[in-house]
């Protein structure tokens, strides 16, 4: 595994650009080396208090293979140089929102697309399990349809009242299935299949890597509350649109952020 820290490095495919290395692989985020409006640029120079990437003098990472798209390839070291950090005062780079340590945040669109993919998978698995666990739900739905077709409104209302308990059970079973699904992936690769497909991952805001079990469980509390307060689920899903850290409410509860790229695996 590469030991290069995340940061902005010379783009292997374009000498006029910087490309963001997330600590594991190259991302799609690029920026010009020099500000279009600034006469001076400190990019590429060591910042105050900055430690070189390698005390022997290591260059910015250059992936093996053709261009930056050798994403899974570990970077090589040649020549001398420092980790290139985007200066915080560079206004021309502020459109790229990042974590406190500089990792680009995933867009709301990517998060929604990943959620839809995971939702389809969990709906298939959870639906089968939940239907088996709550057989009474199937019976009541069949009776409800029959009563509605017969025009018996009194019986329809009675069955609807009876459905309350099984529907709550069904919702809880689905939440448990989704929670188990998320915990397995968040605590191992930090990517559910949906996030893998979109090239994003979840991490603690203050530290990269897969989530601890406690943090992963905390991240599922808001969705649990949303089972009983539907408006909360909607608010939770839309919150990253206006949040400066692109966090949903469940991210704020757990102290997590969704970022571009993969997460470094836990050291054994």
From TrEMBL:
Residues 105-255 form the RDD domain. It is a multi-pass membrane protein. Residues 7-38 form the DUF2510 domain. It is found in: Cell membrane. Keywords: Cell membrane, Membrane, Transmembrane, Transmembrane helix. The chain crosses the membrane at residues 112-133, 167-186. Its main location: membrane. InterPro entries: DUF2510, Pra-immunoreactive, RDD. Residues 26-50 have a biased composition (Polar residues). Signal peptide: none annotated. The keyword Membrane applies. It comes from the Bacteria. This is RDD family protein. The lineage of its organism: Bacteria, Bacillati, Actinomycetota, Actinomycetes, Micrococcales. Residues 69-84 have a biased composition (Low complexity). Residues 26-84 are annotated as: Disordered.
